[in-house]
Amino acid sequence: MDLHTIETYLRPTALDQITTWQPGWAWLAGGTWMFSEPRPQTHTLVDLHGLGWSEFKITSDGLTIGATCIMSRLLQETYPASWTGIVALQQAVRELASFKVQNVATIAGNLCLAIPAGTFAPAMVALDAQYQIISLDGSARTVPAVQFQTGLRQTILQPGEVLRQIWVPAANLEWQVSYKRLCLASAGLALTIVVAAYHPATDRVRFGISGCVTVPRLIEFFSIPTSEQLTQALDRHLPLAEVINDAQGSAPYRRHLTQVLMQRSLQAVIH
After folding, report:
1. Which of 5, 60, 97, 129 has its CA 20 to 30 A from that of 182?
2. pLDDT attached to residue 250
């Protein structure tokens, strides 16, 4: 889609070339969502690609993903054999879109879009990823994935701030994982997404949940939970009043599906 309101295109090669942030400005990464709908309030695009932030680094400490790294990189690399958790991130790519989008859209962009159906957020939450956020003045802060999204298309990012890097510790990538997503049609928006991560040595279990709520949730157990404990945890962390209720599915239906997927994903990771 053409954005007829765009008047200015900027492609800085260093962050300090952008000294102020004005209303009507927007960061541009992959652009697959940016150019998918009218944006009458946006008149200036600031392209991140000139900054060279497309890193994808595999080290003994973990996985680092830069702000402009495209999704398909997750499917193309070779990982340490112990990194069983990488399957959750790869499945987030496959569940999201066609290969055409995967080769343009960025991982960070999907997270910053902050919609319930976003496929990466629950995987990052389950794996306890850390996000580095930087400001125009170069100052940086790091936050856990579970704190990043605050509402429907809302994040903790302040005007001019950008999600610079995503880091997933190697120890977390060694957990057993299961990624389950349910929607009304194969290409439809998710009714619920559940990503389970299990640490066999300690029996810890982490569930990243989205699709059924506007803010991804983390439900964590320090031993393998029973069905009753799953129900009790859902009552505490996913009250019906906070579950999405729309034409696709009622809140009780979405939460019921979430519990079913939690039970199935738990069985998948412990066997």
Report:
1. 129
2. 96
